[in-house]
Amino acid sequence: MSETDSTTRRRQRTVSWVVALSTIVLIFDGYDLVVYGTVLPTLLKDPSQLGAITPGQAGTLGSYALIGVLVGALAAGTFGDLIGRRRIMLINLAWFSIGMGATALTQSVTAFGIGRFFTGIGVGALVATVGPLVAEFADPGRRNRLNAIVYSGVPAGGVLAALLALVLDDLVGWRGLFWIGALPLVLVLPLAAVKLPESPKWLASRGEVERATELAERTGIALRAEPVRASGTARAGFPALASKELAWPTALLGLMSFAGLLLTYGLNTWLPQIMANNGFGKSDSLAFLLVLNVGAIVGGVLASLWADRVGAKRVVATTFVLAAATLVLLPLKLPLLVLLSAVAVAGTGTIGTQVLVYGLVSNYYPTRARAAGVAWCAGFGRIGGIVGPVVGGVLVGAGLGGTTAFYLFAGIAASAALVTLLVPRSHEEAAGEPPVAVPTAGSANAV
């Protein structure tokens, strides 16, 4: 076997492990974010579980996890560019799992809320870390599709939560469903500790060239041109985002993520209720939600293949436009199959677009600021995730109906498409990101 073939096999094996572990992590993240909604009817009906809970308190409890996600994402951005991707992943896998288990043991509404906030911190940190990790291991021509596969784990986890709630709720109760969310501590963390390497590109960006080169040779990952922080003068993490070079695109990318998550959470929360108000039965309304998420997974992955060919920015702008076009169709009295098809496309344009946004952001920033950039977009976007359900609730509660909500969401999608087109090209796009030789102890060739 030639040296080139051996390097290719090592690289493929490494990337496969990184993508597989990252996807599994986000499946459990998505599971956590949706499982609360599946157990909420039980908690509202049965005061013996945690005590009496009003609908208002239920909404507040639901927001605790999202606030935790915001905190966790920003924390990961603060530390991810300083202590490395691998450490953040392992720490927060344990954090998230312990939070789920602790929540399963709670006996009061207050303790349950604290558990949800604690768990959300781990969720946010993981969401903000897997993007930089995949971007730094994947080949340039496959980054968008691999990011799409990984981040599709979030809606896939939501589907898993709904299915397991249907099958297991009567057998294990709501506490058992939360214990399932704690399984990564024993099933995933040990495997990740063995199979998940640190990013050689992150090590190189920190000036640890010898360690980076050794790890690159062992994993088959090519190192590419990027300024090395030998003297520590180049800004890293969040300070780098405020630089003249990155401040404007960071603001635009944050607005894109805000819009994407507003649409994601707004539709996931209110689509069944709005369609029920429009005359559909309960089973049909839940089917719309399932189709929305399946459309997001399938459409997001397919769109990512296109993004690897023509660039993520163009594809994200297009899918935002698709969202706007299909959302204005949903209030119309269309045949059921046509309506379901429109919902599937809307899933691609909303949830699927957010998957593509994470990929665009992960590949946009230099290594020294990548974790902070993804964390900023995940964190600021999470504010949109909090606003979306509130906006839908205000409109429905005011008696304005689903039509107004859909039109508003369509307007937000169209505006996000325009914002996307304003994002300037990254340096990698401008330079074509050519491979660069990395000096080693015994070779001057590229790794």
Supply database-style keywords:
single chain; 447 residues; mainly alpha; 19 helices; disordered C terminus
How would you explain this protein's 3D organization?
The chain is mainly α. The protein has helices spanning 3-45, 47-50, 55-83, 85-104, 109-137, 143-151, 153-181, 184-187, 189-195, 200-205, 209-219, 238-241, 247-277, 282-310, 312-327, 336-364, 367-397, 401-421, 427-431. Mean pLDDT is 80; it is low at 227-233 and 430-447.
Distance between the termini: 17 Å
User: In percent, how much strand structure appears in the residues?
Assistant: under 5%
Task: Give helix and strand order, one letter per element, not per position.
Answer: HHHHHHHHHHHHHHHHHHH
Q: Give the total of beta strands.
A: 0
Instruction: Report low-confidence residues grouped into runs of 5 or more.
Output: 227-233, 430-447
Rg computed from alpha carbons, rounded to a whole number of angstroms: 22 Å
Helical percentage: over 70%
Structural class estimated from helices and strands: mainly alpha
Give a quick account of the main beta sheet: strands, pairing sense, barrel closure: none
Globally, the shape reads globular
Average pLDDT value?
80
Report the total helices. 19
Structure summarized in a few sentences:
The protein has helices at 3-45, 47-50, 55-83, 85-104, 109-137, 143-151, 153-181, 184-187, 189-195, 200-205, 209-219, 238-241, 247-277, 282-310, 312-327, 336-364, 367-397, 401-421, 427-431. It is built from 19 helices and no strands. The chain starts with a helix and ends in a 16-residue tail after the last helix.
